[in-house]
Amino acid sequence: MAALRLVVVDDHPVVRDGLRGMLGTQPDFELAGEAATGSEALTVVAAVRPDVVLTDLRLPEPSGGTLIRLLLERVPTARVLVLTTHDTDSDVLPAVEAGAIGYLLKDAPREELFRAVRAAARGETVLSPTVAAVLLARVRPKKLAPTTQLSSREREILALVAEGRTNRETAAALFISEATVKTHLLHIYAKLEVPDRASAVSAAHRRGIL
């Protein structure tokens, strides 16, 4: 089986030396090229057409998401694996949106790096735990503001509604009147900004209430 062809992009010679030494211990890896700047990376990647590009984000221009987009325009079959010290929203999101298949921090253990390179080559997404947390925080539905939090009784009613209970059945289960159930439902609809029971249940699932 042919070795995976890799290109390392980092503006620090010591980092490139370290990666060269680590990657060289793996018989299925071939370091096909290196670059210290974004412009060098574009030239090298276009010339050697690697399977995986390991790149830092903050480089002499182009860098970050712009560099990732340009690399993939040059060689669409390449997989870009970010290897950096930066894990803020402003770093992670542009890189992922630009097409990076993975995002690791430089303090990752070498075995984790090796697994990530192989996974990236297979087209699998690889994220360090801290980076995954950043992305989940952005895509996870926002919690309700304190002024729109459901009361414990409203949650009980919504849970029963989600089970398919009618207003009468819900009232019987909670030992309250059917009119009280209807009043609570109106409050729930208002807080969740929905028009009916089905929409309330759907919204509650999306927001993690149920």
Which features would summarize this protein structure in a list?
6 strands, 10 helices, 52% helix, alpha/beta, 2 domains, 14% strand, elongated, 210 residues, six-stranded parallel β-sheet, Rossmann fold
SSE layout:
Layout: E1 4-9, H1 13-23, E2 29-35, H2 38-48, E3 52-55, H3 64-74, E4 79-84, H4 89-98, E5 102-105, H5 110-121, E6 126-127, H6 129-139, H7 152-162, H8 167-174, H9 178-192, H10 197-206
Parallel strand pairs: 1-2, 1-3, 3-4, 4-5, 5-6
Helix pairs in contact: 2-3, 3-4, 7-9, 7-10, 8-9, 9-10
Folded structure, characterized:
With 210 residues, the protein is α/β, with parallel strands linked by helices. The protein has two domains: 4-139, Rossmann fold, CATH 3.40.50.2300; 146-206, Winged helix-like DNA-binding domain superfamily/Winged helix DNA-binding domain (Arc Repressor Mutant, subunit A, Orthogonal Bundle). It has ten helices and six strands; from the N terminus they run βαβαβαβαβαβααααα. A six-stranded parallel sheet has the order 2-1-3-4-5-6, with helices on both faces. α3 (64-74) links the parallel β3 and β4 (79-84). α2 runs parallel beside α3 (64-74) and α7 packs across α9 (178-192). It is elongated and about 75 Å long.
